[in-house]
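Sequence in, structure out.
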Amino acid sequence: MMDQIHNNDRKSIMQGDFPKAADQAVIERMDIQHGMSMDYLARPEAAKAIQNILLDILLKGLGRELRS
């Protein structure tokens, strides 16, 4: 996953494995954050917004441009 983030632009990252990895992380934490997880899974637009926020955090940590 991190290789994809290091080597691709934002559009390619969002078309790759990143969204599914974010989904899996949410599913794995459902026992702790059930309400938030259900909202994420039930509302694709909310999931996409959260995925973009997570990607912004990762890109910022790598010193890469946030939006392109």
